[in-house]
Design a protein that fits this description.
four-stranded antiparallel sheet, alpha/beta, globular, 13 helices, Aspartate Aminotransferase, domain 2, binds 4'-deoxy-4'-aminopyridoxal-5'-phosphate, disordered C terminus
Length: about 425
């Protein structure tokens, strides 16, 4: 019998099976609402690019076009601009990675690098082990390749080694191939946690002895607030780790330039996959990043970003400390953009979101960072974009919403007042 499409989507019968795993993330649906100027958005992880020296960059780019336009505006190599790959070695030196420019593949942001790695390693049903919670954009990639994504518990030091061993044993016991362990060791998105050196070593040993490739995603590594830079796991093992870096948080996310450092054979496959996907990463953006790195004091700018984000982190923490009701817990990030907040039992951050947006504050509910429905009591708060006063105002608004939620529960119980309640769905513009 011929299958019929719906009126909304006449092609619904034609999609590949993997497309079923592609659903709009809660973050995406939120952006439209949170972008209204009256809403304090603690939701999106947008870097504060306004702090860049825009005039100086404009001059650099203008000169670039005048002097090297014929190259910069042309197609380039699938692996990336050789001079930029050399410069990336300098950018990675602080995280302890010593590689060769040949080991580097430039990508359109680290997001594309995640996609390429999964494309070359994962068949449908292959297991990918990820932190609980994990970066929503990576989860989207794993799902779109029909991976069997399994969350592994974290503690205050990051991915829990015992939980990782158990997850490996469980998958292997069920005869399932495990292709990747995906981890964000520094200034985790969304958990705001950083793995210490001993934890990194232990996780690496587990991956090595199980023969599983580690995918180390490190876009925030240089953004530690006290200026110390955690050493990458890749600095201990060049063969067992694919390391991902990005200029999105240290220069500008709109340029879409990131990179992967991979063992030689893997690097070749990544380049072939990249060529099949985009022919080459944006040549123009690569030239722009290269010129920025050679002409601007980029390390000073990174230091300025650190200071700016530290001040915003402090505003968030001070706000939560003074206004959040007892029983609310949060992580204290030492770098990066995010704190992970856990509400008192039995509050539900997903159900509460429409009321928060009505109170003109937005966050991302914790469920967006899991593939399996966990995280209802949690939320991610980002402090990277609003200024400290706005952050404090946003936290005050959020604190009132949480307190009102608790009052409602105390008065009416978990079902809430008739006709409303803490179990209602998000309003249509948030769904
Ligand atoms: N990984 C993590 C952990 C991230 O937080 C992000 C951006 N939010 C990315 C990868 C993607 O970054 P980009 O593609 O801009 O380099």
């Amino acid at each position: 019998m011929a299958q019929v499409g719906s009126r909304l989507d006449p092609w619904v019968h034609s999609y590949a099976a993997r497309t079923g795993g592609m659903t709009a993330s809660e973050i995406r649906a939120l952006f439209a609402v949170a972008a209204r100027p009256e809403v304090v958005s603690l939701a999106g992880g947008m870097p504060y690019v306004n702090a860049l020296p825009l005039d100086a960059i404009a001059d650099t780019v203008a000169r670039l076009i005048r002097e090297q336009g014929a190259s910069a505006l042309q197609y380039g190599s699938g692996q990336g601009l050789p001079q930029l790959r050399e410069q990336i070695l300098d950018v990675m030196a602080p995280v302890g990675i010593h590689a060769h420019a040949d080991d580097v593949v430039v990508t359109m942001g680290s997001q594309q690098a995640i996609d390429l790695v999964v494309r070359i390693f994962c068949d449908p049903g292959d297991v990918v082990l990820v932190e609980a919670p994990s970066y929503v954009g990576a989860l989207g990639v794993f799902r779109s390749y029909q991976c069997d994504v399994r969350h592994v518990a974290m503690d205050e030091q990051g991915l829990d080694p015992n939980a990782l061993r158990t997850a490996i044993a469980d998958a292997r016991g069920a005869g399932k191939p495990i292709k990747l362990i995906y981890t964000i060791p520094s200034f985790h998105n969304p958990a705001g946690i950083t793995q210490g050196p001993a934890r990194r070593r232990e996780l690496l040993e587990i991956a090595q002895s199980a023969g599983i490739l580690l995918l180390e995603d490190d876009p925030y590594g240089l953004l530690g607030f006290d200026g110390t830079v955690p050493q990458a796991i890749r600095s201990e093992d060049a063969d067992g780790v694919v390391y991902l870096g990005s200029f999105s948080k240290t220069i500008a996310s709109g340029l879409r330039v990131g990179w992967a450092v991979a063992p030689h054979a893997v690097r070749e496959k990544l380049v072939l996959a990249a060529e099949a996907s985009v022919l080459c990463p944006s040549h123009f953006s690569q030239y722009a990043v290269s010129a920025y790195l050679s002409e601007q004091p980029w390390m000073e700018q990174v230091a300025a970003f650190r200071e700016l984000y530290r001040e915003r982190r402090d505003a968030l923490l001070a706000g939560m400390e003074s206004a959040f009701p007892k029983g609310t817990h949060w992580t204290v990030p030492q770098g990066g953009f995010y704190s992970w907040v856990t509400l008192p039992e039995p509050l539900d951050a997903t159900a509460m979101l429409p009321r928060a947006v009505s109170a003109l504050v937005a966050y991302v509910p914790g469920t967006g960072f899991y593939v399996d429905g966990q995280g209802r009591r949690s939320m991610r708060l980002s402090y990277c974009f609003p200024d400290p006063e706005r952050i404090q105002e946003g936290v005050r608004r959020l604190a009132s919403v949480i307190s009102a939620e608790l009052d409602t529960l105390a008065t009416f119980g978990p079902a809430g007042p008739a006709g409303s309640g803490s179990t209602s769905s998000p309003s249509p513009d948030l769904a």
